[in-house]
Each structure stands twice: as structure tokens, then as C-alpha cells.
Amino acid sequence: MSKEVGPLNPRTTSYEFNGITGVLGIALGLPLLSIVLNQMIRPDYYIEGAFSNFDIAELWNHIKPLKWYLTNRELWTYYLTWFGVLAIFDVTLPGRTMEGVELRDGTKLRYKINGVALTTTLAAVLAIRWHLTKGEMPELQYLYDNQTDICIITIIFGFIMSFFLYAFSFFPLLKANGRGTKEHILSVSGNTGNPVYDWFIGRELNPRIGPFDLKLFCELRPGLLLWFLNNVACLHHHYLQTGEVNNAILFVTLAQGFYVFDGVLNEEGCLTMMDITTDGFGYMLAFGDLTLVPFTYALQARYLTVSPIVLTGPYLSFLVALMALGYYIFHSSNNQKSHFRQGKLPHLKSIDTKRGTKLLCDGWWGMSQHMNYFGDWLISLSWCLATGFQTPLTYYYSLYFAALLIHRQKRDEHLCKVKYGDDWKKYETAVPYKIVPFIY
Ligand code: NDP
Questions:
Q1: 237 lines ligand 1 (CB under 6 A)
Q2: Which segments cross the bilayer (predicted)?
Q3: Atom from ligand 1 closest to the CA of residue 365
Q4: Is the CB of 285 under 6 A from ligand 1?
Q5: Which ligand 1 atom minimizes the distance to the CA of 355?
Q6: Which residues, at least 6 apart from 304, have a Cβ–Cβ distance to it below 8 Å?
Q7: Ligand 1 centroid vs 240 CA: distance in angstroms?
Q8: Which of 56, 157, 332, 360 has the greatest CB tally within 10 Å of its CB?
Q9: With a 6 A CB cut-off, is 376 part of the ligand 1 pocket?
Q10: For ligand 1, atom 3, which residue shows the shortest CA distance?
Q11: Within 13 A of 284's CA, how many CA atoms are on the CB side?
């Protein structure tokens, strides 16, 4: 058995999300919300004024008993093929190798960076399938027609995977030289000793099968790319039904596609993100990556298939400009911090810390503590605005994302206070705003 508490793996003493009640509420509530949102934007469900016509019995009509999902071969084959093929691509396609941040035992994990090869392969597969099926693409139609059912399969898959991840975090790890065993590195926030809490937050920091890193894979491949495919499936369905494509759904698909592939192609940026460096891999990330991202971030495209909108030229230009502004802030602020940390921008003002690293308080990082979050949120708003103002449902993404980013900022602040002590207070005096300059 691996050692649970010790200098390498300190016991987690503070609980987030209001402790066990909170994590149980999220673990049950968010899957339910994902199912309901998908059902509400269903072609055969009355959508306009969705709240005034809210009929839970009608919504639940199409949901089958759990056993039906657990034993449905067709759905499982579809999803596991998607997951498995991407995993095979991830392991076999060529790429560079990069080191992650230094871990508590002084080692660094090596990651294969092959987003370019993966994107090229995926584009080639889609083009070949398009050619072979003369544009019919039955796989995309299946995804469109069975969206809620596949969403439920990913929820079950996330549950099962996170139980295994939790259990395996107690098994001894083989040393790289094959001799003896070594201690798992656990997450600083998922090692309370309470099984429910640790299962949710994730006990082990970087669960791996050989060199295959499950957390980075799930963060960047099966969920993110399924979000894009869900959008393409909506666009494709709309085209097959009407023979045309409205500019709103085209904007949403292209803009979100750009965002997805920006993430997939700049995967090294992920190696320093809180999800990889701090959080364990448990139900929280498994559900977020595999269900929440592909099935609730794709609601705009789904809505625009059910209720097509044609945007005016000036309004569309405004949305493109808003997305471009958000992307510019998001991308250049993330780059600025990364370049600064690599010693490339020595002229920018910063605070020296006892920890040895410098805290930038100039440029984007002088305007607020997380200008990158603000840029990211503006991007999300441009997508929601593309759905017009007929239902609040399609604004779910911006609202949820605002809550996620504020919560993330608070978590990061707590961790930085612990990491930097008094130096963080100096930084807060120099940069008082958290996310939005002059507002918050
Ligand atoms: P940040 O990129 O803001 O990184 C925070 C960390 O950076 C801190 O813990 C600290 O770590 C370091 N840091 C903080 N302030 C400074 C400073 N002034 N100077 C130098 N280093 C500093 O946060 P995230 O990792 O959470 O997010 C990265 C990106 O991912 C963001 O753009 C975010 O919008 C995006 N994102 C997108 C999501 C989505 O679902 N679309 C979900 C979550 C994030 P240390 O000092 O230890 O290096």
C-alpha cells in the first residue's frame, strides 16, 4: 500500500465546495442539469419560452431506466470507439516530448505533445468519411439524434473511471527502473482521508498507464473534440434538413472550433494550468472534461438548429469583434505570463518573492490578477449573443463560466496566499482587482 500521509503527501485539512454535502450536491446535481439542458433544447420539445412551458414529465419522457444505459451495446460501442481511437492516436501519433512542472519529489513528468498530428489525422478521417458517405456522415447524424443518451453514457463512464482512479491511487507504483515501488504523488487538495471527498476532487495527481497521462488526455481530447463534433453534427443536420446554413450557427461552429483547436494545438500551455499541476484526477475533472464541456458548451449550436436565426451584418460584425477582443486579451495575457516566467520580458515591473519566483504586476497582469479569465469570458459571451434573446437557456454557458472562473480565482487566491505568504499581500496592494478592472 502507498503511504497516505507524510512529507511528500500532506493530509488535506481544508474542504472546498462546502465539504461532503457540497461535493455530493455537485456530483448529482450537475449531471442532472446537463441532462435537463440537453432535453430542453430537443427538436421535439417546445422551446420558445422554455421556462413558462417547463414540463418535467415531458422532459423526462425520453430518459430510459439506468439498466438500459448500462447494457446498451450500441451506445457504449459508439462512445468507447471514440475514446479508444483517440487514446490510440494519442499514444501512437508522433510529437515532441515536453517536461511538466517539477513535482514534490523533485521529478518532472514527460508529456507527448502531438496536437498537430492529431488534428491533421482527425481532419483527414472526417474528409474521407465525407467522401465515402457522399456527405451523409451517419456517425454525425447518430451523434445528433442520440445526444442526451450519449451524454448519459459519458456521465456513467466518468463515474466508473473515477472510482477506478480512486481505488488505483492506493496501489503501489512500480519504479521507472522496474525495481521496487514508489509512493504515488497525491493532490494537495484531494487527500483528506474521506473517500467521498477524495473521489470527487481526485486523490492521485497524475494517474498514468505507462507514459499515457489520463488527466491530460481527458482534458484535451475526448471531451473538447466531442464539443466541436457536436457542433459540426448540429450544423450538418441543419444543412441536411434545410439545404442551407444560417450565419449564426456557422459563426458559433467556426468560433468554437477555433477555440477548441487553439487549445488542442497549444497543449503545452495546459501543463502549467491548475488542473494539471494541483487538482487530482477524480470525478470533478472527469465529469467536467467528458460531459460538461461537450454536452453543455454545445447548447448554442443545438439551439440554432432547432430555432435558426439569421444575424444582420452589423450584429455579426459586433460578435466577431467581441470574440476577437476576448481572444486577444485571453491569448496575449497568458503568453505574457508564460514569456515573463521564461525570463523573456525583464523590463516589466514585478515583485520578488521569498519563494524564488517573481509576480508580474505590469502589462495585462497590472490591470487585474486574472485578465486571462476576463478575456475568456468575453469569448463565451460572443457565442451566447449569437443565439439572440428568445430564451435564457443558451446563456447558461456564460453564466456557468462566470461562476466557474470566480470560483477558480478564489481557489487560486487561497493557494497563492499559502504559497507566497506576505509577498502575496504586496502583490494584492499593487494589483487590487481580481478579474475585471475597476469592477471586481
Ligand atoms: P492562471 O493562468 O491565471 O494561473 C494562475 C497561476 O499563475 C498562479 O497559481 C500562480 O502560480 C501564477 N501567477 C498568478 N499571478 C501571477 C503573476 N502576477 N505573475 C506570475 N505568475 C502568476 O490560471 P489558470 O491556470 O486557472 O488558467 C489558465 C487559462 O485557462 C486561463 O486563460 C483560463 O481562462 C483558462 N481556463 C479555461 C477553462 C474553460 O473551461 N474554457 C477552464 C479553466 C481555465 P505560480 O506562481 O505557482 O506559478
A1: no
A2: 20-41, 113-132, 152-174, 281-299, 306-330, 377-406
A3: 18
A4: no
A5: 46
A6: 234, 238, 246, 248, 249, 252, 386, 387
A7: 42
A8: 360
A9: yes
A10: 370
A11: 26
Helix 222-242 and helix 299-306, axial crossing angle in degrees, nearest 10: 10
Atom of ligand 1 nearest to the CA of 341: 20
Q: Find cell 497568458 and name the residue.
A: 334
Helix or strand run (H / E) with residue 213: strand 212-213
Q: What is the DSSP string of 261-325?
A: HHHHHTGGGGGGSHHHHT--SSHHHHHIIIIIHHHHTTHHHHHHHHS-----HHHHHHHHHHHHH
Would you say the CB of residue 203 lies under 6 angstroms from ligand 1? no
Write down the pTM of the prediction.
0.92
Distance CA 255, CA 249 (A): 10
- Kindly list the domain boundaries of the chain, sorted by start residue: 1-308, 311-440
Asked if pLDDT for residue 269 goes beyond 90, the answer is: no
Q: Residue 172: its pLDDT value, please?
A: 80
Residues pairing with 97 in the sheet: 112
Distance (angstroms) between ligand 1 centre and the Cα of 433 equals 15
Residue nearest to atom 32 of ligand 1 (CA): 372
Tell me if 184 CB under 6 Å of ligand 1. no
The torsion region of residue 233 among left (phi > 0), alpha (psi -120 to 50) and beta comes to alpha
Chain Cα centroid distance, residue 320: 23
Nearest CA to 95 out of 231, 216, 256 is that of 216
CB 384 within 8 A of CB 300: yes
413 CB within 6 A, ligand 1: no
The verdict on the CB of residue 174 being under 6 Å from ligand 1 is no
pLDDT digits (tens, 9 = 90+) for 220-256: 999 999 999 999 999 999 999 999 999 999 999 999 9
Q: pLDDT tens digits, residue range 295-338?
A: 999 999 999 998 889 999 999 999 999 999 999 999 999 999 98
Q: How much is the pLDDT for 266? A: 87
C-alpha dihedral sign at 268, 269, 272, 273:
negative
C-alpha to C-alpha distance for 231 and 397, rounded to whole angstroms: 14
DSSP of 36-98, one letter per residue? HHHHHT-TTS--TTTTTT--HHHHHTTPPPHHHHHT-HHHHHHHHHHHHHHHHHHHHS--EEE
For residue 418 and ligand 1, the question of a CB distance below 6 A is answered with: no
How many angstroms does the Cα of residue 195 sit away from the middle of ligand 1? 28
Helix (H, G, I), strand (E, B) or coil at 100: strand
